[in-house]
Here is the input.
Amino acid sequence: MLVFLYGEDMYRVHEKLLSQRKQFFSEKKEKAELRKIDIEEIEEHKKVFAFLEGIRGGNLFSSRIFVQISGLFSLKKEKSDEIVEYIKEMTFDSDDVCVVVSAGNVDKRLRLYKELTKKSQKKEEFQLLKGASLKQWIELYIQKTYPEVVFEENAVDEVVKRTQGDLFRFTNEAEKLFFGSQEKGKITKKDVENLIRETGDSIIFTLLDTLGSKNISQSLFLVRDQYRQGENSSYLLPMFAFAVRSAIKVLSLREEKHIHNVNEIASQAKMNPFVVEKIIKNASNISLERSKEYDNTLSRLDIAKNRKN
Here is the structure.
């Protein structure tokens, strides 16, 4: 059997792979072998051989094998095409051999992608969760992993905001919350604010919100807090410029090209759908016109800073 798992959400790709592996090893009593092949870690001239060797039958002591293959899409075109030709000739109809190819966000125009989707008995794409789907996933994870802990509603919202749809980061931060909360058995928004530091880009987008709504006191507090944490203008100005230009990119596609689908905007802008959704949601504060004004101001500041240096 050939299984192809891919997508931007590598956390759920990995979780699905582990689930597939667990199922395979629990199906029969015969001894099974696990093989892990990361093509990126193999010497260039051995990559194709390693792929072929990995998916061959089991050894003398095991008749069933489970093969995990990653890094296939890192191959140069010549070797990728060679793999494609081998896959075309292969049959994956044995229940005793399960080959799982996992990958991140792939180019669907590639021959390798087309051949894998054609030959796979199971294939699944994992796009980044956003909005209600992301919140629902987090709530289910909390219920399953920490059934004895109550997360306040606004605490979950704050976790979503600070981790920005990065499920690897969320699961790590959830454990920190579990052990570091002030009140045993309960996680509050204050716990989240105290224990999970906002990433630089989320801080900057929050700053854009407060400036756009003319909340100057909150804007100054956010900047001062970043300085207290060791950041300086050399970091904050480029990050602020990145946020402003991201807003321009998203709002231009929405208002000038009339594209309203979040995933389509994210694809064209090459941005995380979570960030795109946040920009659109706050468009009343971060308008396209205001973003362009900010960009002009930042450009002048950058020129002045460079002249000074």
Summary: Residues 233-255 form the longest helix (23 residues). The chain has three domains: 2-125, 131-195, 200-308.
